[in-house]
Structure formats: C-alpha cells, structure tokens
Amino acid sequence: MLALLGFITIIVLLALVMSKKASPVVVLIVVPIITGLIGGFGKEVGTFITNGIRSIAPTGTMFIFAILFFGILTDAGTFQPIVNKILTVVGKDPVKIAIGTVILSTLVHLDGSGATSFLIAIPALLPLYDALGMRRQTLATIVALSVGVMNIVPWGGPTLRAASALDVSATELFNPIFIPFIAGMLFVIFIAYRLGKKEQKLIAHLNIDSIAITKEENAEQLKLARPHLFYLNIAIIIATLFILIREILAPHVIFMLAFAVAITINYPNVKEQRERIDSHAKAALMMASILFAAGAFIGIMTGSGMIGEMANFTVSIIPQSLGKFIPVLTGVIAMPASLLFDPDSFYFGVLPVLAQSASEFGIEAVNVGRAAILGQMTTGFPVSPLTGATFLLLGLTGVDLGEHQKKTIPYAFATTIVMLIVALLVGGIKL
C-alpha cells in the first residue's frame, strides 16, 4: 500500500510540474500531504514535515547566503577586470577566444545562477564573435558546456537538491568528485579548442586585423563598482572556497560569514546594503522556497515509510547482477534525464528511490547522488526545454533550440561520461 502511494505521489508530482499545471513549491507541499493523509497518517504528517524542514534548513541557508555573497561581489565589479583581461588576451584568435569563453563562463557562474551567467558572459563575448564572423552557435555551445559543468559546485542548484534529498551535506557530495569535476572542465576546454579550430578555418579568408570591436559601458555597473577592493574581494573568494573544500566550517556558516564580510567591506552604508540585498532577494527566495517545500516532501515520504517501500519494490524487480551498478546507470542517464525531468522532479522524486534501491544492494546512497549531479541539470540544464535559463541563452545568442540541442547535446553527454569514468577510476563513486 505504501509503495503504491509513493509511486502515485511521484507520478502526480512529475505530471503537475512537467505540465506546468502547478508550481513546484505548491506541488512539493500539497501532493505528499494528501497522499500521507490517505495513507492513514494524521497528526504525524505535521511531525514528518517539521523533521524534513529541519534536515533541509542548513542547505537552504547555505544557498541563500551563497547567492547573496556572489551577487554582492558581482555588483562590486570583482569579476570585471578578469573579464576585461580575458578579452584582451584572447585578441582576435578564434581558438583563444573559444578557450577564453570557457574561462569567462566558468568564472561568472561562481554564483550558481545560469541566468546571471548568461547575462554577463554572452553580452561580453557576442560583439567579439559577431565582429570576427564566428558562429553564434559555437558561442552558445561553449557557454552552455562551461556553465553546465560549473553547476556541479556545492552551492549549485542540482547539488543542493541532491544533498537535500539524500540528507547529506553538499560538500560530502562534491568533494569526492572534485577531480572528475576538474576533468570535466578540462574536457570542455578541449572541446572549445576543437570548435575554435573549426571557426578559425571558417574565417580564414577574412582580414581580421582590420576589424574593430567595441564594448558598451553600463552606468549602473560603474556606480556599484569597487575597483579599489578588487584584490581584497578575490582574497575573500579564495578564503571562502578553501574553507568550504577543506570543511573547516559547515557550508551554511561559511557563506553567512563570507556574505557579512563582503557586504560590509564593499557597501558599508546600511541603505546600500539593503538595496544590494533587495536586488538579489528574488533569486535567493525562489530557490530557498523550493528547498524548504522539498523538506516537507522528503519528510513525509521518508517518515511515512513510502520511500523505503518503493525501494523494496524496485529492488525486487532489479536483477541481483545489476544492483551494484545503479550508480553507473544513474550517471549514464543523468544528462539525457534533463530533457525529461526538471530538477525538482528528478532530485526529489526519482533520486531518493534510486538511492534507496542502491542501498539495498549494499551501495552507499551518496554514490548515486554523485552520479546524478554529473549530468542531471548540470551538463544537461543549458539544453533542457524545462528550464528558463536555456531560453535566455538562446534569446541572447539568437540560436534556435533545435539547432542548439543538435550541436550541444552530444558534447554535453560526452562530458558527463568522461566525468563518470574518472569518478569511477579515482573512487569518487564506489560500487
């Protein structure tokens, strides 16, 4: 009975979210409450929700302050000198431009927001691509791959969702796959090099030395910029990431402190601080509300025993010989799954069942989570029609969705497989 209720809960959740009949926040709260009551859990439902929210609180707090931290540093223009330096170094060489695109896209995605990354990287690079006659599709592909891999970072949406669903810390998920993550970035640089070579052949007949490239100044950005604090802000970022990766403090504590230091140093005026927080509040609140709603969902699904019974059923139909390979199968389907499942549906609906099933075969659930974040809405999110950021990318570059998917999906899938293989070799994912 509980297994059936669990599958019904997930099917209804997927149907409502993917058909856009209801928002993820509403679905994550209402659907499990209804099925929990049908399952005979009355007052216990409230306890389940409270326990679920309590488990999710550190992750939600981390995300809110990570968004605010990197948002403040972006406002202060911390990354702009690096952007300008990259554009200067790449000059008019298509190969250097392609590789520079990876570096720039990676840098601006430190805040974990795909929309923000596209809004910064593409307008900075598009005049360069257009002036030299390089294809916008190449720009869209390289930016998508770079931002996709960077979305694996501990404060990225997919990793936070996976950590919440499995009730582990984001660093516990990320740290063992740091080397595969680096391998993924290097592979993206290799892809960019190859694409740059193709562009080089394409524009070989042009006299690129005579081409002038202009860049517009933004008055609001200049007003908020704090160029005299550049080195101090970079030091704050390095210190924050070092403490995070070394797990010296809990992730949410790290970003709370980092945010407090960054906003105080860059915008000591209280009114300015309020304005900066307000400007990033929408992005922070949107994700935080989903995470806390997911806490209600996970609390009910776990506390009622639905997840456990679903896993038992799944285990009963999986051949014993394949059970230990659930993490590998998850890694292989992770990127394509981005085309079918939005992140909330996958990480809060599908992943817990896969993870619990793996546990029944003696595989730690966290290995399934690590495999999932190598592709599901990481390398897969900038090609998925289920995320608005994809259409922002396409709108800014003027590339058609079908054309973008045809060009980028094979590279995105290959990148995930490379990271999965490396993760298996270095023990980041254990069978």
Briefly summarize what is shown.
This protein has 431 residues and is mainly alpha-helical. It contains 21 helices and no strands. Helices cover 76% and strands 0% of the residues.
Can you walk me through this structure?
The chain is mainly alpha-helical and 431 residues long. The chain has one domain. The chain has 21 helices and no strands. The longest helix is centred in the middle third of the chain and has 34 residues, at 270-303. The chain is globular and about 70 Å long. The model has no long low-confidence stretch (mean pLDDT 85).
Notable traits:
431 residues, mainly alpha
Structural topology:
Blueprint: H1 2-18, H2 24-38, H3 44-75, H4 80-90, H5 94-108, H6 114-132, H7 136-150, H8 157-166, H9 170-174, H10 178-202, H11 219-224, H12 230-246, H13 251-266, H14 270-303, H15 306-317, H16 320-323, H17 326-337, H18 343-360, H19 365-372, H20 388-397, H21 401-426
